[in-house]
Amino acid sequence: MSQPTPSNSCKDDHDPAEPDLRTALSRILAAVQPVTGEERIDLRNARARILAQTVYAPTPLPAFTHAAMDGFACQATGLNPAEGLQLRWVGHAYAGHPWREPLAPGTCVRVSTGAVLPDGADCVVMQEQVQVEGGLVTLGRPPRPGENVRHQGSEFPRGAHVFERGERLGPAHLGLLATLGMPTVTVLRRPRVAIFSTGDELRSLGAPLALGELHDSNRYSLLGLLGGLPVEIFDLGIVGDQPEAIEQTLASAAASADLVLSTGGVSVGDVDHVRQRVERLGRVALWKVAIKPGRPLLFGSIGSTPVFGLPGNPVSVMVTWTQFVRPALDRIAGGNPRSPLRFLATLPVSVDKRRGREEFQRGILQRVSGTWQVRPTGDQGSGMLSSMARANCFIVLPREVTHLPPGSTVEVEPFENLLG
After folding, report:
1. Is 95 within 8 Å of 114 (Cβ atoms)?
2. What residue ranges in 3-68 does DSSP mark as E strands?
3. From the centroid of its chain, how far is CA 107?
C-alpha cells in the first residue's frame, strides 16, 4: 500500500475529507454483527447480560389482588353514607397471612401493605383516614371502589410480553424476573475480546525501566474499561514493533476472539505497523476520524472478526473507547448501542481549540447556584492520563469552533456509565 501523502497525514490538524464522528460510528456499527450462541444462567449472574429470548409472563403480576396501603379493607360498593360511615372490625390480614372468610357488608378487616384483599372487599381505606374505638372503625369520608388496591394482573396478565430479545438486563430487570418466579434466564454468550499493546518502549509492571522505556498503561485502562462488562478478556500482553510479531498476534487474536483491540502503531511513523498488517490479513474499513484526541483510529476486520487499532496516547484510547468501541461492543454483545448522555452546561472560563476536528476536552462538571457549570481540567495533552483521572466529563466542542468566551454553553458527556 502506498504511503499517505502529507495532505492526509495524521500530522496535519485538518483534513476536510476525514469522516466526522457520526459518519465513522455509523460505518462501524453497520460492519459489526452480534455473537451467536446462548446459555441458560442463574438470575443472580445475569446483570448486564443480553436476553437471547423474548420473555413472557408465566404468571399474572400481581399474582393476586392485594392492599396497596396499610389500612382497613371494606366494601365501598353499596355503602350508604346517610346510614353512617362506621364499620365493625372483624379481623386482620397481613402479607403472607390472608383473611380467609368472606367479608360481610358493614364490616372491615385490618390489612397491611401486600396482604391479599379479602373476598367481598373492594377497597382499602388508609389507616390515617379512620378513627378506631374498640371494635368500631369510623371512616373519615366515603371510600371509592378500587381505592388503594392493586388488582391481579394489572401490571402483566399471564402470557403478556415482558422483555424483548436483545434487551440488556439491569437491576430492575432482574427484580422483575424474580417477581415472576424465574430463577434462570437464557442470554447470549459473552463476547470474547482480545487486547494487546504495541511498542518496543513498553515494559510490564514491575520490570525495570531503561532510558526511553515506559510502563504499559493502555492495557490496564482497557482492562478497567472491560472489567465491568459481561465479556471474556484475552490479555495478550505487549507486542514489540516487529511487523511479523504484530501480524502473528493479530491473526491469532482474530481466530479466537469476537473483537480485537490493539493500542499504538496506527499512525504514520516508521514503526507504525498495525494498519499495514491488518490490511495484509484482512481489510481496513476506516482510518482517521475528525476528532481530537483519537484521530488515527483504525477499524477493519480479519476474516469475520472486527479489529480496532486504537491510538497509543492514553487519553486517545479512552476517548475512542467511549465514542466507538463501546457502542460496537454493545452491538457485538447482541444489544442496542447506547449513545452517551449529553446535556448543556455553562463555561465559567474561556476555551480555545483549532478548527477542523470535534474535540473532547476533559472537564470538571458541577452544579453551581442551580445550573451546571463545567471547566477544563487544565492541560489537555493526549498523553496526560491525569487529565482523565481528575475529570468527571468530556467537554464536547464542535468541529468548526475555535474560541468560546466565558458564559458560553457547551455540550458535556458525564463519565458515569460511560467508562465501563
Report:
1. yes
2. 38-42, 55-56, 66-67
3. 52
Task: Count CB atoms within 10 A of the CB of residue 406.
Answer: 11
- In this structure, how many other beta carbons lie within 10 angstroms of the beta carbon of residue 201? 17
Inform me whether the pLDDT recorded for 247 exceeds 90: yes
Instruction: Please give the domain boundaries of the chain with CATH numbers for all domains.
Output: 6-36+189-332 (3.40.980.10), 39-61+158-188 (3.90.105.10), 66-150 (2.170.190.11), 343-414 (2.40.340.10)
Give the Cα separation of 127 and 395 in Å (integer). 52
What mean pLDDT is predicted for residues 258-272?
Answer: 88
| Residues 322-349 pLDDT 10s | 999 999 999 999 999 988 899 999 999 9
Lookup: cell for 268: 504514520
Cell for 161?
410480553
Assess whether pLDDT exceeds 60 at residue 238: yes
pLDDT attached to residue 384: 85
Q: Which residue, chain included where needed, has cell 457520526?
A: 22
Q: pLDDT of 187-219, one tens digit each?
A: 999 999 999 999 999 999 999 999 999 999 999
Distance between CA atoms of 253 and 276, rounded to whole angstroms?
A: 16
Alpha carbon distance 42, 53 (integer Å): 15
Nine cell digits for residue 339? 449513545
Question: What single-letter DSSP state applies at residue 323?
Answer: I
- CB-based contact 377:345 (threshold 8 Å): no
In this structure, are residues 122 and 76 in contact, taking their beta carbons and an 8 Å threshold? yes
User: Is it the case that residue 418 has pLDDT exceeding 80?
Assistant: no
Q: Which residues are within 8 A (CB) of 206 and not within 5 positions of it... i.e. 6 or more apart? A: none
Which residue is listed with cell 389507616?
A: 127
Confidence of residue 305 (pLDDT cuts 50, 70, 90): very high
With beta carbons less than 8 A apart as the criterion, state whether 313 and 297 touch: no
In three-state secondary structure terms, 235 is strand
Report helix, strand or coil for 338. Answer: coil
pLDDT of 2: 35
Alpha-carbon dihedral sign for residues 342, 343, 348, 352: positive
**Across the chain, what does the average pLDDT equal?**
93
